[in-house]
Backbone:
């Protein structure tokens, strides 16, 4: 299938972009930054194309559905949202040092999707319960939320590396703090929307909008952690290191919601296929 | 405020309490996903010391999400939210109503140099012009004339966003209310109905017994279609809902499209087939084919010329790994004989030559001069319905909408005000720009910079 071939090439482009971002730091020349940026843009273009082709191919197979239905597709889409958000952030803050921290995430997601032995990249038909537009909105909003949390996490990590002389290129603490906050907010709003659309779907498909299955419960845990983080900032004025710590803790919860719960039984375990 | 003297009040007015309660909720939820809950807990309890198991049982650890603990946490959170909001309300109201020129001491003190500049026009002209400029981006423009020809104009935006936090918190209260309503007065259960059968009661979830429905459900037909790989593609039941023998509603029920009747929702949850369908049985007499007859287990039919009657005694989907089979009993003048008739008899003979001679029970020609052939077993489908009622659901849905509105208001808008002071400074006129916001100072800074740029550009254009 062409789409999987394109998508595995995208993996290399992202890896190349990461290497270029690294060169930019080591050699201190903006040339490498530009090269990296082009690699990311090229990768993102191909990535988008791959997703669209996959969508189209599923129709050609007569089982048409948005490419958001199994674990492989969710990894690919996750990487796509992370890179898209990254490009927007890079463009807004006009600073390329973030790339060294975000691109590896995208690269790893893509590589994991392509290489892990028990992940099937076949386009599979949807069982009736998954044939719902609510499910599509649910997946899209959740992954936009996850992407924002991923960027907030990467910036949180940068915050701690700032003290090391080698990483002198990292922007001011104030800028990082603002970025962590903005991304956490964006993630929080999308996660809220993701949980709500998921409940609407569950209401139609499973007969109850909330059934405390492990994935639901962990998304609630994640939501509460970020709610605590935002309150700590709004009401207690937390900034800097504390926010960075919370961004990292929050991301651990995101990862567990996404991957960890697959080892616990529940409704959402269809993602294992 | 005298209220704050009350220890009860100040306990619930604390944001520390909020954070602690939220952290407790997180901990409870984590434990709830690590320790098996409800049905799964029963297995788990067998593997640990009985003393510990009964302790955990008493502490409701095996059903944390319906436990007193969660209930208490939600109750405390609600109190916390209510008290906090009431506590804060007077201040918010004051800020909302606040006149543009009060309570902003030192507004123009310590301004950055970019926000102050001089121009040639007199105060009157500049006032009119700047008012026009502010008018384009701000909703509420007010003006105050100060002493010595000084004028201050104020533009304001996003005043209502001060209420957005209350909307979020109100939505949470509603959500908790709705969830509790559902937990106390809602119910959920399952029922399997075979094609052509009816049911008027369901099995409640969690072994809580049965419940009679306010109507009777009849499954008229069940249809399922499969993908090539064997996974189900669509399935649906044609249902009729009856009450007092009158039809309430009739229509198809599909996955993801529940039917709602009298406050009860019915979902297409699963399906299955049972072997108590009917067998299609053909018989030959001396090589001549008779007709094909459909019979269910226990039913019988007579052979032509009163040569005997045939009764189906058993139907098996898969007898001894040899596929579908029907056990028949033939009664005639010669007595009774009973034997199995297989669907795949040719294949069975091929794999085990001579089997029908060695095992008379497997010989479809045991009753002479007849030969019986099983043409198939009709699978009888049953539809698996989930039936539930949740009087809290509308509240929760309202809360969801409110929450999104509130969140967007909280995070993506803010109450911004800009003041421009216009005062004579010798021959010239001095203009100073000051601004305040309740959040997002970065956004406001950008706005102020844009505004001052605009003013400067328009002045320059005129002077050239
Ligand atoms: C989960 C349950 C929640 C509880 C129990 C809760 C409780 C509280 C409390 C007690 C305060 C302090 C009010 C004060 O300063 O007097 C507060 C403030 C605030 N909460 Fe929440 N909150 C919850 C969820 C949320 C969520 C999900 C948001 C998301 C936007 C939120 C946004 C805010 C904001 C922005 C403030 C600051 C209000 C201000 O300073 O004007 N809260 N919350």
Residues:
């Amino acid at each position: 299938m062409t789409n999987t071939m394109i998508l595995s090439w995208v993996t290399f482009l992202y890896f190349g972009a990461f290497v270029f971002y690294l060169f930019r730091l080591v050699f201190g020349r903006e040339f490498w930054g530009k090269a990296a940026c082009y690699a990311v843009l090229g990768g993102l273009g191909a990535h988008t194309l791959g997703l669209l082709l996959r969508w189209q191919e599923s129709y050609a197979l007569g089982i048409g559905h948005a490419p958001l239905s199994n674990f492989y597709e969710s990894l690919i889409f996750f990487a796509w949202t992370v890179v898209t958000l990254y490009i927007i952030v890079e463009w807004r803050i006009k600073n390329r040092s973030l790339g060294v921290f975000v691109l590896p995430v995208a690269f790893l997601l893509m590589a994991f999707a392509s290489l892990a032995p028990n992940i099937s990249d076949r386009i599979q038909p949807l069982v009736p319960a998954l044939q719902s537009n609510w499910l599509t909105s649910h997946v899209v909003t959740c992954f936009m939320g996850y992407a924002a949390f991923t960027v907030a996490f990467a910036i949180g990590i940068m915050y701690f590396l700032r003290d090391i002389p080698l990483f002198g290129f990292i922007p001011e603490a104030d800028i990082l703090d603002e970025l962590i906050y903005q991304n956490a907010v964006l993630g929080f709003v999308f996660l809220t929307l993701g949980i709500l659309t998921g409940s609407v779907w569950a209401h139609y498909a499973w007969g109850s909008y909330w059934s405390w299955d492990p994935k639901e419960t962990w998304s609630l845990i994640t939501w509460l952690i970020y709610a605590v983080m935002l309150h700590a900032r709004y009401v207690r004025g937390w900034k800097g290191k504390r926010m960075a710590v919370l961004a990292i803790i929050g991301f651990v919860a995101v990862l567990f919601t996404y991957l960890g719960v697959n080892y616990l039984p529940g409704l959402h375990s269809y993602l294992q296929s | 405020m005298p209220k704050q003297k009350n220890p009860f009040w100040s306990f619930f007015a604390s944001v520390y309490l909020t954070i602690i309660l939220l952290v407790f909720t997180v901990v409870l939820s984590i434990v709830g996903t690590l320790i098996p809950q409800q049905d799964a807990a029963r297995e788990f309890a067998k593997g640990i010391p009985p003393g510990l198991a009964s302790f955990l049982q008493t502490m409701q650890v095996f059903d944390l999400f319906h436990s007193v603990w969660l209930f208490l946490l939600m109750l405390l959170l609600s109190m916390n939210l209510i008290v906090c909001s009431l506590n804060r309300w007077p201040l918010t109201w004051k800020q909302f109503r606040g006149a543009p020129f009060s309570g902003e001491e030192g507004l123009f003190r310590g301004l950055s140099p970019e926000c102050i500049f001089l121009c040639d026009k007199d105060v009157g002209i500049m006032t009119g012009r700047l008012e026009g400029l502010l008018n384009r981006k701000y909703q509420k423009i007010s003006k105050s004339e100060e002493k010595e020809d000084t004028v201050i104009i104020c533009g304001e935006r996003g005043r209502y966003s001060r209420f957005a936090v209350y909307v979020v918190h109100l939505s949470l209260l509603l959500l908790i209310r709705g969830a509790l309503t559902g937990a106390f007065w809602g119910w959920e259960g399952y029922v399997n109905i075979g094609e052509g059968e009816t049911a008027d009661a369901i099995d409640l979830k969690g072994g809580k017994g049965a419940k009679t429905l306010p109507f009777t459900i009849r499954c008229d037909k069940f249809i399922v279609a499969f993908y090539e790989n064997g996974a189900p593609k669509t399935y649906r039941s044609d249902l009729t809902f009856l009450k007092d023998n009158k039809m309430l509603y009739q229509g198809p029920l599909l996955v993801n499209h529940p039917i709602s009747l009298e406050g009860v929702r019915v979902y297409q949850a699963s399906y299955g087939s049972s072997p108590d369908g009917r067998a299609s049985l053909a018989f030959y007499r001396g090589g001549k084919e008779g007709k094909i007859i459909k019979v269910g287990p226990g039913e019988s039919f007579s052979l032509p010329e009163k040569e005997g009657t045939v009764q189906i005694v058993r139907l098996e989907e898969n007898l001894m790994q040899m596929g579908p089979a029907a056990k028949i009993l033939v009664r005639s003048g010669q007595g009774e004989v009973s034997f199995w008739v297989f669907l795949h008899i040719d294949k069975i003979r091929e794999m085990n030559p001579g089997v029908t001679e060695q095992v008379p029970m497997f010989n479809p020609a045991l009753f002479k001069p007849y030969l019986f052939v099983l043409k198939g077993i009709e699978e009888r489908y049953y539809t698996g319905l989930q039936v539930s009622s949740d009087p809290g659901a509308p509240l929760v849905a309202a809360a969801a909408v409110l929450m999104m509105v509130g969140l967007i208001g909280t995070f993506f808008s803010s109450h911004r005000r800009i003041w421009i002071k216009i005062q004579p400074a010798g021959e010239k006129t001095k203009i100073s720009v000051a601004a305040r916001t309740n959040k997002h100072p970065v956004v406001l800074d950008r706005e102020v910079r844009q505004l001052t740029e605009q003013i400067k550009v328009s002045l320059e254009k005129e002077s050239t």
